């Protein structure tokens, strides 16, 4: 727990999903900048390679664990300057063969647990503080074969936008980032399980680069951040016009196959 003198000098950030591919680099960069870093993890002990000052055990699939973690965070961090929700999971399956446990895991980790955890930390978010949700392009673009994941990320986007309206009068800024594919263990596991080919519409970026982009976005004023102007414009057009999506899909599929082939060649999986 930070001492009073430390609290007066260092800003506090709380990060969920800190042990994941992107989360590790978020912790590292924020710690280097002098932040007091508090992480939430399902693991009882903080991994040795995570740059954090404090670890709180929390399973986003357990409402009781979230409430307990919330008490610990509020006691240890009377002022939270930044809350980053970075936890997420995906289990690609077509709707016809959905497994109930996989559905529950994705919805509770990606949406329900995020909502409950946000509620727990909210009382201590400082005026002028920020809440940042690490979403996914699946939050604006439907991925066949990952319908449940898509639904959870669409829901997270809606929650963030509604929360932004609620907290604006309190001077708390809520924003979402929608990184493209990031070359993390979660991404590689997803593709091994038959994840959407459209993940390769852009080259999977390194997690440290994604983390730097996310932190740059956290300092901005926009409520939603996309990696490129194309990513910002085309997904809404596809949602407004399913016909446009069907017309573009053959070109997108060919491009994604080419990118995937190059990716596999580079990683010796040709």
From TrEMBL:
<dbReference type="InterPro" id="IPR057326">
    <property type="entry name" value="KR_dom"/>
</dbReference>
<dbReference type="GO" id="GO:0016491">
    <property type="term" value="F:oxidoreductase activity"/>
</dbReference>
<dbReference type="Pfam" id="PF00106">
    <property type="entry name" value="adh_short"/>
</dbReference>
<dbReference type="InterPro" id="IPR036291">
    <property type="entry name" value="NAD(P)-bd_dom_sf"/>
</dbReference>
<dbReference type="GO" id="GO:0016020">
    <property type="term" value="C:membrane"/>
</dbReference>
<dbReference type="InterPro" id="IPR002347">
    <property type="entry name" value="SDR_fam"/>
</dbReference>
<protein>
    <submittedName>
        <fullName>SDR family oxidoreductase</fullName>
    </submittedName>
</protein>
<keyword id="KW-0560">Oxidoreductase</keyword>
<feature type="domain" description="Ketoreductase">
    <location>
        <begin position="11"/>
        <end position="183"/>
    </location>
</feature>
<comment type="similarity">
    <text>Belongs to the short-chain dehydrogenases/reductases (SDR) family.</text>
</comment>
<dbReference type="InterPro" id="IPR020904">
    <property type="entry name" value="Sc_DH/Rdtase_CS"/>
</dbReference>
